[in-house]
Amino acid sequence: QVQVVESGGGLVQAGGSLRLSCTASGLTFEHYTMGWFRQTPGKEREGVSCISRFGTFSYYEDSAKGRFTISRDNAENTVFLQMNSLKPEETAMYYCAASTRRISDNDPFCATPSGFGYWGQGTQVTVSS
After folding, report:
1. Closest CA to 5 of 125, 96, 98
2. Which residues pair with 33 in a beta bridge?
3. What is the pLDDT of residue 5?
4. End-to-end alpha carbon distance in the chain
5. Of 2, 14, 27, 30, which cross-links 74 as Cys (Cβ 3.0–4.6 Å)?
6. What pLDDT, in 10s, does the model give residues 39-59?
């Protein structure tokens, strides 16, 4: 049984930082592209960042470039999202997901959730102004 569990969300002031973690079990972790998505009520889930199986390639949504960094530790079955200089409009539920699709650098596949088959329950990020 595949389980994906996110952690690290919380309340932070604008300009602050958070590091999200996601651990997956029940699958061969290095066979999966891992992604981070976010969603606010009434809006579609959107891709924030994703990373290829061995960390060679990555994707960042435009507003995240230069502020967010995705990384993974295949020995620990964990993917991280370091978020710096956070903005109030980035308040959302953040989800981690896994896909068997192999990605290239800045692959637009990562922008939408449809190709990701395994999902966590999400971790709330709240950025106060």
Report:
1. 96
2. 99
3. 98
4. 40
5. 30
6. 999 999 999 999 999 999 999
In this structure, which amino acid lies at residue 62? D
Per DSSP (E only), the strands in 18-117 are 18-25, 33-39, 46-51, 58-60, 68-73, 78-83, 92-99
Instruction: Count the neighbouring beta carbons within 10 Å of the beta carbon of residue 57.
Output: 17
pLDDT digits (tens, 9 = 90+) for 99-109: 999 999 999 99
Structure tokens of 20? 């999200």
Name the stretches of the chain with pLDDT < 50: none
* Cβ pair 48, 38 in contact under 8 A: yes
Euclidean distance between CA atoms 23 and 8, whole angstroms: 11
Instruction: Say which amino acid occupies 77.
Output: N
Q: In the prediction, which pLDDT does 57 show?
A: 98
Residue 28 DSSP one-character state: -
Cβ-based neighbours of 124, under 8 Å, separated by 6 or more: 9, 10, 92, 93, 94
Sign of CA dihedral 106, 111, 116, 121: positive
